[in-house]
Amino acid sequence: MAVKQLPWDSAVVIAVCDVLASTDYPGLTWSEIVQVLSLSGVREIEKASNKRNDLTRALINTQYRQRAGNCVIAFVNQAMKPARYISDPARFGALRDGVNEALAFQGLHVAEDGRLTRGAIAKTLNEAAEVAGRLQAEMKRRQVHPEVIKYCREELIQKSIFHAMFEACKGLAERIREMSGLTSDGADLINAAFSTKVDPPPLRINSYQSETDRSDHSGLANLIRGVFGTFRNNAAHVPKAVKPVSEADALDLFSTLSYIHRRLDEAP
Q1: What is the 3-state secondary structure (H, E, C) of 106-130?
Q2: pLDDT tens, 211-241?
Q3: Is the dihedral of CA 215, 218, 222, 223 positive or negative?
Q4: Average pLDDT in the 16-39 region?
């Protein structure tokens, strides 16, 4: 018989479930959750709300009934078996990073083989970010726009900051092309998409009626040109060994790109 483990803090259980049962990629589907719960010996499975709430209820209720955290440990071990993600290794990496941030408060860590191991106990969000991998955790905390992550998810998982920054910039250009219908790139794309020589411009972020609107419009275009000139063009021509980038620079860029994407969300 397995040794009873102390029950987990309910806040940690909820945080782990929020990652593993997240609505969007890389969260587990409901059928996957049911399968993993069954393999973990959890029988209290009920589809009553959304999958995150249902998973949380199943684990917390079982933990309370058994007066032990074994069911939660078993679920995480089953859910994080690498063999489940042979066809999508990036999904394993994304889930592992997210789960580890929550597990840091329990003094646990999912290793590369998918097994739970003991680690340092985090007491603050910053400590959790250090344990789990600061870059992705900090991006999540800053609420970086999904369009930023969409284009550099693989690079983030591989912890390639240099290439993640480059791909994120390329992703911004791609979104502008999709929104404007243009096919150019770089400064030519920005000049054409935000051109003030036509009224209204092919792409605008406001009603473009007042002088304030026009100034706001031109300001964003200048910001995008600056981002491309500072980050994308340099990355395209300078090897990362010659000009290494810091995590702080990457986070600042991702926040800037996130702001730009949110302004593009406002396009009429």
Answers
A1: HCEEECCCCCEEECCCCCCHHHHHH
A2: 999 999 999 999 999 999 888 755 444 444 4
A3: positive
A4: 93
Check if the beta carbon of residue 189 is closer than 8 Å to that of residue 173. Answer: yes
What span, in angstroms and rounded, lies between the C-alpha atoms of 192 and 236?
22
For 107-165, write each residue's pLDDT tens digit: 898 988 999 999 878 888 776 766 656 677 678 778 899 999 888 877 776 667 888 89
Are 241 and 217 within 8 A, CB to CB?
no
C-alpha separations of 143 from 148, 157, 193, 240, 256 in Å:
11, 18, 27, 27, 12
User: Which of 164, 169, 174, 218 lies closest to 194, judged by CA?
Assistant: 218
Nearest-angstrom CA–CA distance, 137 and 95: 12
pTM of the predicted structure, to 2 decimals: 0.56
**What does each C-alpha distance from 78 to 46, 72, 116, 242 come to in angstroms?**
19, 10, 10, 43
User: How far is the C-alpha of 24 from the C-alpha of 34, rounded, in Å?
Assistant: 17
Indicate the burial class of 211 (C-beta count within 10 angstroms; 0-12, 13-18, 19 or more).
exposed
**Spatial contact of 116 and 78, defined as CB atoms under 8 Å apart:** no
CA 80 to CA 190: how far, in whole Å? 43
Token pair for residue 147? 């369009």
CA contacts within 13 A on the Cβ side of 57: 12
Task: Evaluate whether 180 touches 171 at the Cβ level (below 8 Å).
Answer: no
Q: Angle at which helices 70-79 and 89-103 pack, to 10 degrees?
A: 150
